[in-house]
Amino acid sequence: MDEDILIMYLEDDLDRAYRIDCKLRSKTELSWIKREEFRKVYEELLSAHLKGMPDMPLELAMQSVEDILGNESIRFNNEELKEKANETKLT
User: Fold this and answer.
1) I want to staple 80 with a disulfide (CB 3.0 to 4.6 A). Which of 17, 24, 76, 87 is the partner?
2) Chunked in runs of 10, what are the mean pLDDT values of the chain (91 residues)?
3) How distant is the alpha carbon of residue 18 from its chain centre?
């Protein structure tokens, strides 16, 4: 059964995770996504962590998500990788 869960977090937590994502995108020369688009990504990552480990405190889940976002081996979606390849061809 796939149940929705309510996640409450501070905007400062979202901002910190967004900056981590932007830094990684800059390092890999990928375009940044808008903060509001990132909100959905952040909430989905938190939700996945909390559903997989329901006893995990939210603070640990947020730290874990930040660790994932800061990992340079993170995989971007195919559209972003194609965009990066096209940008490289243009320069």
Assistant:
1) 76
2) 74 91 86 93 85 78 78 61 60 52
3) 7
Q: Which of 73, 75, 14, 22 is nearest to 46 (CA)?
A: 14
Q: Which of 70, 17, 63, 56 is nearest to 40 (CA)?
A: 17
What are the structural domain ranges in the chain? 14-90
Q: If you write DSSP's letter for every residue of 3-41 in order, what string do you get?
A: --------HHHHHHHHHHHHHHHHHTTPPPPPHHHHHHH
In this prediction the pTM is 0.64
Residue that is written with structure tokens 């967004």 in the block: 18
Q: Are 27 and 71 in contact (CB under 8 A)?
A: no
Q: CB-based contacts of 51: which residues, under 8 Å, 6+ apart? A: 3, 5
**Contact (CB, 8 A) for 69 and 20:** yes
